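Morning F.,

Quick status update on the modeling queue. The single chain you submitted on Monday has been processed. Sequence for confirmation:
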Amino acid sequence: MTGCGIAGVVWEHISRWYKVPPIFGFSVRDLLELHKTTKLGVVGKEAFHGIIIIACWRLWKARNEKVFDGKEVNLEEIIGDIKALGFLWFKSKHKSLGWLNWSLGFVRNRNSINQSINQSRVASAKAKEIVSTNPVVVFSKSYCPYCVSVKKLLTEAGSSFKAIELDLESDGSELQAALHEWTGQRTVPNVFIGGKHIGGCDSTTAMHQSGKLIPALTEAKAIATKS
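Structure tokens below.
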């Protein structure tokens, strides 16, 4: 992984991709420490370190395939796997990262990537603040029939609620991505009552049919109690 010709080509490609000095090490440990010596930022070093780990694994895999299975080494396949696996790993930590920014080169696009990551953090904080400051929140889309159904159900129950129409918000896509990361739910409507995640249309309707919706709305003080 540190001295063979195939590995050398892979390390050269990665160094050009990240625009760092040529990669060289006497051992795997040297390779795993390389990110500390680069001039990349915090996020850049994190990504570079991950790519080095993935590249070491992929080179080890290629070596075993050749030795034990007689499979010829395919450099294009190795480099493609490193980029693809690196993207999946990094995107699992930074949801807003797009493939185009990643595949064109992290350093070349680091400002765009950092901006996307910051937008994701801002959206997450905004979504959580909305939920924490309103008894009932429906993250919705104005054209969605399931959202219309949930809002109608809440209205008929006499509940006040705050509806956030994601398709009408300038940061709607970022908010939806933040909600997906937070709740695991990608779709709308996305309903919260008393700060608790309820789910979508089916979950809210089922809650009503089981007789649990009105008590939850009352406890959250979304329904005015009669004096």
